Amino acid sequence: MEFSFGFIVSIAIAIYLAIDAPKHNKNPWLWGILGFIFGPIVLGIYLIRTGRKVAGWIIFVISVLLIILFIILFGIGMFFLFNSM
């Protein structure tokens, strides 16, 4: 279920970027592919580059904080997993 939700979010971001990019004289293929691969981080960067700075920075900062949180939790999990042996 989680994998399909993330996949749907990535597709939605890619479609949005591909449709909106020509309005700002950007390459829709480039932004669509980047949006599909990197998701919300690229959406935040795109919004910053197209003049919607507040929304872009909010999305970018939240995305980076969630990635850092995931890495920290993964590290703590690995610590407890290998330390319990």
- Radius of gyration from the alpha-carbon trace, in angstroms: 16 Å
Number of domains in the coordinates? 1
Range of helix content: over 70%
Distance between the termini: 32 Å
The biggest sheet, with number of strands, parallel, antiparallel or mixed sense and barrel status, is: none
Q: SSE order in H/E notation?
A: HHHH
- What class do helices, strands and sheet pairing give? mainly alpha
Total beta strands = 0
Shape: elongated
How many individual helices?
4
Give the low-pLDDT segments.
Answer: none
Q: What do the pLDDT scores average to?
A: 91
> What percentage of amino acids are in beta strands?
under 5%
Structure, described:
The protein has 4 helices and no strands. It is mainly alpha-helical and 85 residues long.
In short:
The protein has helices spanning 2-20, 28-38, 40-49, 53-83. It has 85 residues and is mostly helical.
